[in-house]
Amino acid sequence: MSSAIEQLASNINFSTFKKAEDLKKRILFTLAALVVYRVGTYIPLPGINPQIIQEFVSSNAGGILGILDMFSGGSIGRMTIFALNIMPYISSSIIVQLMTSISPHLESLKKEGEVGRRKLNQYTRYGTVLLAMVQSYGISAGLEKIQGATGMAVLDPGFMFRLCTVVTLTGGTLFIMWLGEQITSRGIGNGISLVIYAGIVANLPHAVISTFELGRQGALSAGVILGILIMIAVVIGYVVFMERAQRKILIQYPKRQVAVNMPAVAQTTHLPLKLNSAGVIPPIFASSLLLLPATISGFGGAGSQDSVLGYIGTIFAHGHPVYMTCFAALIIFFAFFYTALMFNPNETAENLRKAGNYIPGVRPGTATANYLDYVLTRLTVVGALYLASICLIPELILSRWTLPFYFGGTTILIVVSVTMETITQIQSHLLAHQYEGLIKKAKAKGRM
To answer: Cys-Cys with 72: which of 85, 229, 254, 418 at CB 3.0–4.6 Å?
Structure first.
């Protein structure tokens, strides 16, 4: 027999969506905010030659610049005011999370609830400003050294250009951070995730058109294009299945007296542990570390494989066995590391003991912590192998065929995860609207 929530969910249709005025306002606000973000990715940085920068980024597309340009929706290739995108904020968030496991002060703030969370968010914003200023200064200094066939990338290098670049890029990052927070509070979905999602999805139409254009010219056969489309569909289905997979641990509440002449009833709930608790962090960290050698090799001008930089650039190129082996190893390592950082079995076991809850068949305290650690370790093994496989499959494709777009496991994970999260929030709003309708009907019947 289906529950009340399942019955409400089955009644959700297009007419229910039309009546949910608050949800429609949230969706429209989210779309408007993303349009503003996309407009900003086309406003160039003052005092530069965009054509020379575009040529430089295209020649180094195999390094970190290519990945960052993909996440920024092409902002780096066009060197716009949003070139840093939201990456300083993400880096600052990760640093603060890492510091909570090292600093006793930050760890105590983490346990203080809403007040502590606001304080940590404030530290994250301060870190974002600092990282954005450092990175923007590095970009301004690097831009002054870029020289193309028609001249320099910077029209008037010097102190004023660097100061203008630092202020502009830092301000662009802070604006995107504010825009993401507004989407989270007044829109639908996670604002920061949707900003990255919009940057990735914005390049999809160009990628599809370029692929079919290569097929029309004969560079890619119809069978190869069809195989790529089937592979993408299979990978997306695989990601959806694994991202929804979770282990539900039964939690028993103490027996409570429901009514006067009724026996005490023991209530139960579940503690859900996701198969992939680390999310997309392990592939992002692993790819960033592995792209450093290729980027350094490219900047070093290693044109010969006999040189050290040339050899490093060769073995860490996409599709090389050394690159793929290190990629998988780093993904597995970061999956365990970030999962251990995000979920503390001892803290969870202590919270259950204080609330009087317990896992049936497991003693409270240390035994519960050991049990949770055992279950989470087994889940993380499967989750880490899943992340490694989802990132290596595209690498194998890229090593066999040259595609006009970056088909990466990280991008698929981000797109699918954000899509699922946003759809879930939309369904939650629709369910809340259904509940409000039922309450209003009940009140109307009570007045009659």
So the answer is: 85
Please give the residue that has the higher pLDDT: either 157 or 399. 157
What is the residue whose two structure tokens read 């951070």? 177
Query: Structure pTM?
Result: 0.77
pLDDT in tens, 124-153: 999 999 999 988 888 888 888 887 777 788
**CA 265, chain centre distance (Å):** 42
Spatial CA neighbour of 194 closest among 427, 412, 414, 411 = 414
Tokens of 85: 């995108």
What pLDDT score was predicted for residue 1? 40
Place of tokens 């254009």: 213
Instruction: State how far the Cα of 211 lies from the Cα of 224, in Å rounded to an integer.
Output: 10
Residue 407, helix vs strand vs coil: coil
Residues 413/284, Cβ–Cβ less than 8 Å = no
Q: Is 272 helix (H, G, I), strand (E, B) or coil?
A: strand
Alpha-carbon distance 94 to 124, whole Å?
9
* Kind of pairing between the strands at 265-274 and 246-256: antiparallel
What are the respective helix, strand and coil percentages of the chain, to the nearest 5?
70, 5, 25
Longest dimension (CA), the chain: 90
pLDDT in tens, 371-430: 999 999 999 999 999 999 888 877 776 666 666 555 667 788 888 888 888 888 888 877
Q: Is 3 helix (H, G, I), strand (E, B) or coil?
A: coil
Local structure of residue 223 (DSSP, 8 states): H
| Cα–Cα distance, 415 to 420 (Å, whole number) | 9
Stronger pLDDT, 336 or 405, i.e. the higher one: 336
Between CA 413 and CA 397 the distance in angstroms is 17
